[in-house]
Amino acid sequence: MKFSEKSALIHSLKDRTLEVTQDYSAYNELGERIRSALEEKSEDSKLRIVLVGQYSSGKSSIISALTNDSSIKIDSDIATDTTEDYEWRSVIITDTPGISAGRIDHDAITHKKIQQADLLVYVVTYSLFDNVLIEDFRRLAVDYNYKGKMLLVVNKMYSEDGDYEELCRTYTENLKDQIGEETLNVMPVSFVSAGYALDEDADFHPFSHMDDLAVKLETLIEKNQSLEGVEAVGQIIATSIEDELAGRVDGTSSDEQQLLQRVEKVVSRVKRDAESALLEESGSIRALSRSLGSECAASVGASETVKDEIDEASETLNRKASESFSQLAERFSEFDEELDSELSDLSDSNLAQRFFDRFESKNSGVGVDGSAASVDAETDRVVAKQLSSLLGKGSNQVAAMSAGAKAGTGLLTSTGASGSAVHQAVLGVGKALGVKFQPWQAVNIAKTIGNVGKVLGPIAAALPVFFEVVDVIQEEKRTQQLTDGRRKIREGFQDAGAKIIEQLENSGREYIDGKYGTLINEISAMRRARINEANDLEEGSRQLRDISEELRSCL
Fold this sequence. Notes:
The chain is mainly alpha-helical and 555 residues long. It folds into two domains: 45-228, P-loop containing nucleotide triphosphate hydrolases (Rossmann fold, 3-Layer(aba) Sandwich); 254-533, no CATH class. Helices cover 65% and strands 6% of the residues. The protein contains 20 helices and six strands. It has helices at 3-23, 28-42, 59-67, 104-115, 131-143, 164-179, 181-186, 194-197, 210-224, 230-246, 254-299, 306-347, 350-362, 377-393, 395-401, 422-433, 445-448, 452-466, 472-533, 539-554; strands at 47-53, 84-88, 91-95, 119-125, 150-155, 189-191. Strands 2-3-1-4-5-6 form a six-stranded mixed sheet, sandwiched between helices. A hairpin with a 2-residue loop joins strand 2 and strand 3 (91-95).
């Protein structure tokens, strides 16, 4: 479809939408929300690019590196809790809170800003997609049809060892499996380490590969410049209609919807607390590994006992890892007890009792007015059975009813984290989760940095004569040896910390997503299914649905 034709169609459908929302009083508020969103979009004087994706994936770091704005808040925790706009060359770049952080308010903020987007930049880390991220990505790329107006960024590539070009090829093959070759063929991908671009040491900057991202982003902008504002109008209208219809399901009781929402809020809050605990422990390990690396690096050339200091620092980091696994075990056990208690309280509420009383009345074969019951009995039974099991048996039943969940009755056991060897904690986590982990030994910092002896040997040999050297060239060479040695030690501790964090986050995320995340997704799917099963939508709903479908077909 030519641009002129698409523009005319989208504006025609916009006019039809506003007419329907005016003609049917039940949708007057929808019309006002659409008008407000369109007015807000009309204020954009430039094409808008919205960064979305995984929380703590480095979206803010990417924007800081692109714009050279050092005032942007960057944190290992959830740093962005609202949207922020930044100017870059000829466009507006919008930073958003990340998904998969257990924050419903964050998801709503991001969802609204996506409606205003002309282009999207989706950011993940070197770990690529988990189940939650891939669903969110496909919703945007396929359901919302952004794949031709989207740039995928894989950040924090510094966490992977190997040749950059070879890593890019390997990751591209992995992405084909996750998002499909067809999508990948129309969507540019950039592999970066934005943190290196922000490092005080300029030697790291070329290894950020931010130039590649900038070039691909410029190409995407140039390709879609003519669509500025036009397709965003269609996205605003289609998404607003879909959200509205999702909240208007005839044939579904208000009590059922409220009960599902209450359960979702309870689980979401516990999930958020569990994720915060996981981020807290990860952050403390990250801070310690950086601190130890800096201290040991500073000793190179200044201390004769640097090897002993590195060994001692290694043990300190191992002890911290063991403590973090044990602490997380205790915290998650507490969260499980909280969830059990809150679900039990909800099962005793008037809302739950009223819902089940009405369900029994509907399924007795006779309506409350004496007429034959007219309901989708099978669907009602499925929903009622799930809610009854969930509220009657607490969080252990949550795990049992969650399809594909790998959670057991608890996350970590403190016995699995006894001693100072980190691998014992990892094995304990794997056993408690019911998943298979590859055991690994306590982190050996000396080995991680590529045999400290090889790094320190030439430096140590040079130290006795370092300050007596006359040859400027030799002095520069030895200075470089010291610099390289310090850098490798810093990187070694950072890599060691990253390996510990990866094990900690993998095990914690497996539990959180398996137990809490899966249930939240099931509740959402249940509510969407009820929408699709509604048989008697009013005429206004039918017209709005037709408009939404037509918009999606042309976007």
